[in-house]
Structures are given as C-alpha cells and as structure tokens.
From TrEMBL:
<dbReference type="GO" id="GO:0043565">
    <property type="term" value="F:sequence-specific DNA binding"/>
</dbReference>
<dbReference type="Pfam" id="PF02311">
    <property type="entry name" value="AraC_binding"/>
</dbReference>
<feature type="domain" description="HTH araC/xylS-type">
    <location>
        <begin position="181"/>
        <end position="281"/>
    </location>
</feature>
<dbReference type="InterPro" id="IPR037923">
    <property type="entry name" value="HTH-like"/>
</dbReference>
<dbReference type="InterPro" id="IPR018062">
    <property type="entry name" value="HTH_AraC-typ_CS"/>
</dbReference>
<dbReference type="Pfam" id="PF12833">
    <property type="entry name" value="HTH_18"/>
</dbReference>
<dbReference type="InterPro" id="IPR003313">
    <property type="entry name" value="AraC-bd"/>
</dbReference>
<protein>
    <submittedName>
        <fullName>AraC family transcriptional regulator</fullName>
    </submittedName>
</protein>
<keyword id="KW-0804">Transcription</keyword>
<dbReference type="InterPro" id="IPR009057">
    <property type="entry name" value="Homeodomain-like_sf"/>
</dbReference>
<dbReference type="InterPro" id="IPR018060">
    <property type="entry name" value="HTH_AraC"/>
</dbReference>
<keyword id="KW-0805">Transcription regulation</keyword>
<keyword id="KW-0238">DNA-binding</keyword>
<dbReference type="GO" id="GO:0003700">
    <property type="term" value="F:DNA-binding transcription factor activity"/>
</dbReference>
Length: 295
C-alpha cells in the first residue's frame, strides 16, 4: 500500500488486494474509487453491484460499503474532505462546489454503481486521475491548488453523467403535465434559486395553475409543495452544517433564507435545536468516535 498525505484534506491510497476489503466505519471524507485492475462485487448501503477494470465509484461519508474480490484488484482511492477547497475558493465558488456534490449525493434516482455513462467522460476522468497522481507525487509549487481544481472538475463531470442518465424525459404521447418525478427533479436542481422555487414559477414551468400544481403534488406525495421544499432545504442545511466550515449566516444566504435569525427560527422549529447547537453536537459526536478509535 502506498499512502501520501496532503495536509489532512486529500489522500491517495493505491491498494492491490486479492482478499475482500472489510467495511470502514466512522469515515468523515468522500472517496472517488478507481478500479485499475480486477473484478468483484461492491456492497454499498443496501445495493450490490459488480465492478471491473475501468469502473469509477463515488462514496459519501454516510455510505456503508465494502468489496468482495473475485480477481486480484488494484484500487486507487482519492479520499478528501470539503476543506480541500476552502483555502482557495471564495464564498460563491465554494457554494457552487457544494451544489455539485449535493446534487450527486442526494439525487434519489442515483444507483450506487459505476458513475460513468459516457465513454468520453470516462476517458477524460481517467486522464485527470493520472495527472492528479503525478501532481501529488511531485508536490511542486501550487500542487494543492491544482489538485483541488482537478478534483472539482471530476465531480462536475460525474454530476453531468448523473443528470444525463437519470433526468426524466417526457414522452410526446403522455399527458402534457409533468410527472411527479419531473417536478421533484426540478425542485432538487433549483433549490438554491429562491425565484425558481416560488409555487407560481414551478406552476408556470409545468404549464399548471398554482392551485392545480398544489393539488397534484399533494395527491402524489401526501405532502404540500411548500412543506416539501422547506424540508428539502433544511436537509441541505444539515448537510452543510455537518460537512463544511460555512457559518450559519453563510448557509442562510446560500439557501435563500432572509438572514441567520430566520434560518435559526425555522431550523429550531423542526429540529428542536438551533443550527449552531446542531453543528456542535455533531462535532462532539465525531470527536468521541475519534477518541474511542485511539483507545
């Protein structure tokens, strides 16, 4: 095993294994996993997928996964946290990066298999993978800056493959109104745009009246459109509190709340704690896990 460190925010692990890899617990980082050789099965959450040479997997901190190896396999892991991007990016750029990673992780139609569906994009990512390893090993001036840019590029390419593969399409023979999947997809895609999240804007997008859209959404989800959007936004808020160093004020701005006090009031109403206390509780739990590991 070769292990290289980059200020605790980016790590490359190149591993050759002929025996199964057990599940890792307590991870607080993302993994992009490249299969350089071999084949077997990847168990991720409740799914089982086959892997082979050339496959690429993206694993989030919350995912539970392990590999069953059928033929000797060479893995290359890119392991990183959001802090890889924090030193070089201003707020708008980091917010854009978070939107990309959140779209990938929270897309409900995403199957946890090989994330590439375009041969062009697959070849492009493998090329970037080689450049990152070279830059990482050389450790020349600005190498961290270059690596963070290239990892961000890989995530953007993965995001567009997911969007291309799983965005619902409308058949001409179907009713002119959108399916509920299309409405949900629209909400997830535009969560950060307050204007596009207005009921009137969504109704106009899908050629419905406000009342017709609200009734249609309620019928097919059992939830009101306004409540669903709010709950989805709060889900994103929790994600950012746990996985980034954004302040509550910054998150409030990013997610379209009036200000920090507005977000705090809404967050506490549904979670019984303030955003700051929620983040502190999560940090305390993580520190406890880390301490137990050292014992």
């Amino acid at each position: 095993m070769k292990r290289f460190n980059l200020q605790d925010v980016f790590l490359i692990n190149q591993v050759t294994r002929s025996e199964s890899i057990p599940e890792m617990e307590g991870r607080n980082y993302f993994e992009i996993i490249f299969i350089e050789k071999g084949k077997g099965k990847h168990f991720i959450n409740e799914f089982i997928v086959h892997y082979e040479k050339g496959d690429i997997f993206l694993v989030a901190p919350e995912d539970k996964h392990h590999f069953i190896i059928e033929e000797e396999t060479i893995f290359c892991y890119f392991q990183f946290t959001e802090l890889l991007f924090s030193s070089k990016m201003n707020l708008p750029d980091r917010s854009y990066w978070m939107q990309r990673i959140e779209h990938i992780i929270n897309h409900p139609n995403l199957m946890p298999g090989d994330v590439m569906h375009s041969s062009y994009d697959r070849n492009l990512i493998w090329h970037i993978h080689e450049v990152i390893i070279a830059e990482y090993n050389a450790a020349k001036e600005f190498h961290k800056h270059n690596i963070s840019n290239m990892v961000s590029t890989i995530l953007s390419i993965i995001a567009r493959n997911i969007a291309r593969e799983f965005t619902p399409s409308v058949k001409k023979s179907e009713d002119k109104h959108a399916t509920i999947d299309q409405i949900l997809s629209h909400i997830r895609k535009h969560t950060y745009d307050t204007n596009l999240m207005k009921i009137s804007a969504i109704a106009n997008k899908f050629h419905m009246t406000n009342s017709a859209l609200s009734a249609y959404f309620k019928k097919h989800t059992g939830d009101s459109l306004h409540h669903y959007i709010l709950m989805y936004k709060l889900h994103m808020v929790k994600y950012r509190l746990k996985n980034t160093d954004f302040t509550v004020s910054e998150i409030a701005y990013q997610m379209g709340f009036t200000d920090e006090s507005h977000l705090t009031r809404i967050f506490k109403k549904y979670n019984q704690v303030t955003p700051k206390k929620y983040k502190l509780q999560d940090l305390t739990e993580q520190e406890t896990k880390d301490l137990n590991k050292k014992r």
